Amino acid sequence: MGGTCSSKAVISVSATKLILLGAKGSGKTRLLYSWLLGVSSVVDTIPTESFNVEPIQTPDGISLLVWDISGDPSYKTKRRQFFHGTEGIVYVMDTSDPVLMQEAREDLVTILRDRDLLKVPLLLIANTRSKQGSFDDSELKKELKLKSVVRERRWDTVTMAAFDQKEVDTSLEKLQNLLKSTWVASPQH
Ligand SMILES: Nc1nc2c(ncn2[C@@H]2O[C@H](COP(=O)(O)OP(=O)(O)OP(=O)(O)O)[C@@H](O)[C@H]2O)c(=O)[nH]1
Ligand SMILES: [Mg+2]
C-alpha cells in the first residue's frame, strides 16, 4: 500500500490524527492541499489511489496529521485500517446533487457507527460547488437528519460554495474550535 506525503518537515509524534473522508471527487485532496499550501497554489488534483498524509498547523498552532483517504468505491474495504487512534473526522460531501448527498449521508452513517470512531468529533464540510441550491449550516443539519447517529460526539458543519481562501481558512478554524471544545469536555487528552 503506497501513500503520498509531500512534506519534508519532521512530523511530530504528538500530532493529532485526523481522517479526511468522503466520496470520490468530493474535494478532499483539494481541501488538504489548500490547507497546506493555500488555495492559489493548488492548480488541480488527481484522484487519490490510496491516501495522502500531510502535517497541518491550525491558526492557534495545533499540530495535525491529516490522512486523506481515497473515496474510490474499490478502496472502501481498506479505509478502516486508518480509523484507529483518530481524534477527528472531516467528512466532505457534495451537496449540489441530491443523489450524491443521499449516498454520502449513508456512507457517513456507516462511518459514524464504526467502533473506532464512536466519540470522535466530526466536521462535516458541504462542498456545494456553486451558490445555487446550497444550504446554510442549520438547513444542512436539518436536511441530513444525523442527530441520532452523531449522538455523544461533538460536530459542526461548514459550507463551502466557492472554495476560496476565506472559506478554507474558516473550515480550519472551525476544525480547531471543534477539537478544542472536545478536549475541554474530556480533559484527559
Ligand atoms: N469547481 C470546483 N472544483 C472542485 C471543488 N472541489 C474539488 N474540485 C475539483 O474536483 C476534482 C476532484 O477533487 P479532489 O479533491 O481530487 O477529490 P477527492 O475527494 O480527493 O477524490 P478522490 O481522491 O478520488 O477520493 C478536482 O479536479 C478538483 O479540483 C470545488 O469546490 N469547486
Ligand atoms: Mg483525493
TrEMBL record:
<protein>
    <submittedName>
        <fullName>Uncharacterized protein</fullName>
    </submittedName>
</protein>
<feature type="binding site">
    <location>
        <position position="48"/>
    </location>
    <ligand>
        <name>Mg(2+)</name>
    </ligand>
</feature>
<keyword id="KW-0342">GTP-binding</keyword>
<dbReference type="InterPro" id="IPR024156">
    <property type="entry name" value="Small_GTPase_ARF"/>
</dbReference>
<dbReference type="GO" id="GO:0005525">
    <property type="term" value="F:GTP binding"/>
</dbReference>
<feature type="binding site">
    <location>
        <position position="71"/>
    </location>
    <ligand>
        <name>GTP</name>
    </ligand>
</feature>
<feature type="binding site">
    <location>
        <position position="29"/>
    </location>
    <ligand>
        <name>Mg(2+)</name>
    </ligand>
</feature>
<feature type="binding site">
    <location>
        <begin position="22"/>
        <end position="29"/>
    </location>
    <ligand>
        <name>GTP</name>
    </ligand>
</feature>
<keyword id="KW-0460">Magnesium</keyword>
<dbReference type="InterPro" id="IPR027417">
    <property type="entry name" value="P-loop_NTPase"/>
</dbReference>
<dbReference type="InterPro" id="IPR006689">
    <property type="entry name" value="Small_GTPase_ARF/SAR"/>
</dbReference>
<dbReference type="Pfam" id="PF00025">
    <property type="entry name" value="Arf"/>
</dbReference>
<keyword id="KW-0479">Metal-binding</keyword>
<keyword id="KW-0547">Nucleotide-binding</keyword>
